[in-house]
Every structure is written in C-alpha cells, then in structure tokens.
Design a protein that fits this description.
2 domains, about 40% strand, Immunoglobulin-like, DUF4138 domain-containing protein, five-stranded antiparallel beta sheet, Conjug_transposon_TraN, signal
C-alpha cells in the first residue's frame, strides 16, 4: 500500500512539473538544399503548325506533360521538341529533368507558327543544387519572339527576299536521293542570323510537299568508318524565317529560303539540314560544312 502511494505521489509531481516547465522555442524546418520556388511558371508557346524547341545545359532524361494526348513530345540529347496534336488544347504543366536538375513550365497553345527558340543553356533562371534543384526561369531573349516589334521580322524577310535574287554559288554541297536533289545555293550572315537558300530538283512525277525543315548543328563529328563518335553533340536551331508547307511540283525545280540563329561551328562541325515530306516518306538530309557558313559573305 505504501509502495502504491509512493508511485502515485511521484506521478503527480512529474505531471505538475511538466505543466509548469516552459516549452522550447520552435525552430523552422529547413528547406531542401538548392530548392528554388517559383511564383509563376514559364509559359512555352506551342502550335500545331510548327515545332517548339527547348534546349537545356544537360541531357534530358524525363519529360512529364499533363494531358499527354494533346501534345507530341520528343527528346533528343539536351533538347525537347514539342508540337500540338490539335488546335486549342488547354494549357498544361510540363516537368523536365536534365542531368540531376528539374525545370517546370507550362505549355500554352498559340494559333500561329512559333518563331522562338527556348535556349536555357546559359540562362541564369536555371538554378538548383545537385539532385534537388528546380528551375523555372524566364525564356532567353529572342529577337524574333512573337511579342517583339514587326520591324525586326520585316528586316529578316527583306534579306531573304534579296537572297532569292542572288546567283547560285555552292552547287557542290548537294545530296541525291529518291530522284530528288537537294543542294545549297546561297548562304549569307549578319550579326544575328544565317540566311540559307536551297535548291530542290524534283525528277519524279509526284509533288514534294515540304512538311517542315529541321536544322541541327553537329560538333565533334569526325569518326571512323561506320562508327559514330560517342561525344558527338547536336544543337537544334529553330528557323526564324521561311514559309512552311512549300511544294516542289513534279519534274520542276524550286527554291527554299530560311533564316536561322547565327552560330559559329568549329572545323569538326557542320549544319545538318533535314527536309521531311508531308504525305510521304522521302526524307532529304544535307550536311553543310561549317567552313561554308563561317566564311559566308554578309548581307
């Protein structure tokens, strides 16, 4: 009985002491190292009539898009290609993992071709610590973004119109496939863009309808026979001028003109130009040596 009374007294004393003892001040829970919060997601303009290009400073290993049935997404190296499957899809978030970091933005449909390259390779908006970083920086400056003045676009189109009147200069840079001939006719540079004029000879009776033209700068391309170099790097370039869906009718010759962002490649690099057909499988791939572009006259 005495033992039971002793423990009852001890328990009451402990409870009373706990009720009168002040609680230690609460400490804030530290955030994950390198985690960067963003008040507003970066909007990425996407159309069903052109391809939107996003380039990151590391290899892309994951793209997660909400409402995936509304968008076509392709990963190639450190680049992501996005195109709308239909008109007027609702805006949707997109999460991209490049290297050990993450970027989050929002796909927004625009009813016009997108004349912008989202190049995040040197963007200060891409922050984050290894393994836990996130990023949602603003898009890099682009002189042909859709919200820029019309004067810059008119200047580019004016130079392309001038290039269409020039005499052919590079007939040796050509490729022949499926009775189609794709060759480089002219090339010019200014401080912002490289202007290209291609000649297409259609020796078949079937029209060649150009769906879209893809431009990629390839570096470290020297390789052994039938062996691709492991550290070969590819940089997609979004065309900033030129008309989509151009048609080279059967047994005729036509010309295509484009403006792409100026980028000086090394002697081991070249510009890979790919023409894809709208209603067919005839694909033309033309490598343009870097020395031809680097030594081109100004316009």
């Amino acid at each position: 009985m005495r033992i039971l009374l002793f423990f009852s007294t001890l328990l009451a004393t402990t409870v009373a002491a706990a009720q009168t003892r002040p609680l230690p001040p609460s400490r804030p829970i530290p955030a994950a190292a390198g985690l960067v919060a963003s008040e507003k997601l970066q909007d990425v303009a996407v159309s069903d009539s052109s391809t939107t290009y996003l380039v990151f400073p590391g290899p892309v290993t994951l793209v997660d898009v909400g409402m995936v049935n509304n968008w076509l997404v392709k990963i190639e190296g450190n680049a992501v290609f996005v195109r709308a499957r239909r008109k007027l899809p609702p805006a949707t978030p997109m999460l991209i993992r490049f290297g050990s970091k993450y970027w989050m933005g929002r796909l927004v449909f625009v009813n016009r071709p997108v004349l912008q390259l989202y190049d995040y390779q040197n963007s200060s908006g891409l922050l984050g610590a290894t393994g836990t970083g996130t990023a949602a920086g603003a898009a890099p400056k682009n002189e042909l973004a859709m919200d820029k003045e019309l004067e810059k676009k008119n200047e580019v189109e004016g130079k392309l119109s001038k290039l269409r009147k020039a005499h052919e200069e590079h007939q040796t840079v050509a490729v022949v496939d499926n009775d189609l001939v794709l060759s480089l006719a002219n090339v010019r540079n200014d401080k912002d863009f490289t202007y290209l004029r291609f000649k297409v000879i259609n020796k078949t009776a079937i029209d060649y309808n150009v769906d879209f033209t893809d431009f990629q700068l390839v570096e470290n391309a020297k390789q052994k026979f039938l062996a691709r170099k492991k550290n070969e790097a590819r940089r997609p370039l979004a065309p900033a001028g030129g008309s989509p869906n151009q048609i080279i009718t059967g047994r005729t010759t036509g010309y295509l003109t484009y403006a792409i962002p100026l980028y000086a490649a090394t002697e081991r690099g070249y510009l890979e130009v790919t023409l894809r057909e709208l209603n067919g499988a005839r694909v033309l791939v033309l490598p343009v040596p870097s020395r031809v572009i680097n030594r081109a006259a100004t316009i």
